[in-house]
Amino acid sequence: MRAFQYFFLFTLLFQTHTFGQAPVSGYLNIDQSEKWENKVTLSKIDLNDQDSDYHAIPIATASITEEGFFAFDQEHFENHAQLYKLQLQPLSDKEKKKLSEKIKNYKLFIASKKDTVSFHKTTKYFDKYTTTSKADLEWQKLKKFNARFENLTSDFDTKQYLIETKGYVKDSLQILLVKLIGIKALDDQNLLEKDIKKNPKYYVDLLQELKSSELDPATYLYLENKLHLITKELTTQKYQVSLWANAVAIFIIGLLIGGIFYMKNKRNVRQIPLSKQEQIVKDLIQSGKSNKEIANELFVSISTVKTHISNIYSKLNIANRQELLSKR
């Protein structure tokens, strides 16, 4: 029974330690402390900001102890991985620009309530840290990959660099948040829009995967809007191409129909020569003779005259006596 009580007490203490600890903490060795605020600002990064510099939204501050220690509680962090920023603020706006040009006074990192991030005391602010965040560890790999392309010579193949970066982001990154960060980098390089147009299905599937994840929809809203605009543009282009194709098809059909009528009319224009007797009847009609007068003059029946007239109409492609008279 006593053993059970000890076990219960140990478990309770372990849980209190585990769940009560600050997810993010560390030490700062502040040089020229009179120029810096005695606190650290924690901000959430807005990935939807179209600016290449990440937009930080402050969410909390933590005081720095005499030993340089600071910590942030779990309440400031999301259940899922999120991009955050730690920053040491100058005391005055005048010092802000001067110090920011000389000293890197911030750190971007990925964490959640489940992770532990510990910053070590070094000569540089937020320089080294350990983390249990798998997303952050993968992001560090992405940054190492991009570091290979720093300080390049002028003859470097930029096109090949973009191809390699795109391939790494799409194929090597497994954690969605890090993939979104990589995609934003592609967009900063003016590569994303071209790739969406070439591979719309990949990005549509990625968006569905993001919607099925625990990520805050605001995290991928920028990608969703961009994808919507580009797919709408592609649909419009396809519609316009379809309209042009239909117009060309209608034009060709019209030409064919016109050609058929033209050939038919051309065949009709080709008149069959009148016989000698039909020519005589035609001349008599055009001279103003009636059917009876023509029959008497040619010593034939009126029925025969009518037959000749019918043949004349057919061969000359006319319908009545008036049209025949007009052909004088």
UniProtKB/TrEMBL annotation:
Matches recorded under InterPro entries: Sig_transdc_resp-reg_C-effctor (IPR016032), Tscrpt_reg_LuxR_C (IPR000792), WH-like_DNA-bd_sf (IPR036388)
- Tell me where on the tree of life, at the top rank, the source sits: Bacteria
Protein's name in the database: Regulatory protein, luxR family
For this UniProt entry, the molecular function terms from Gene Ontology, in alphabetical order, are: DNA binding
What Pfam families does the entry give?
Answer: GerE
What are the transmembrane regions? 243-263
| Any one Gene Ontology BP term | regulation of DNA-templated transcription
- Mind listing the UniProt keywords for this protein, alphabetically? DNA-binding, Membrane, Transcription, Transcription regulation, Transmembrane, Transmembrane helix
Q: Which residues form the HTH luxR-type domain?
A: 267-328
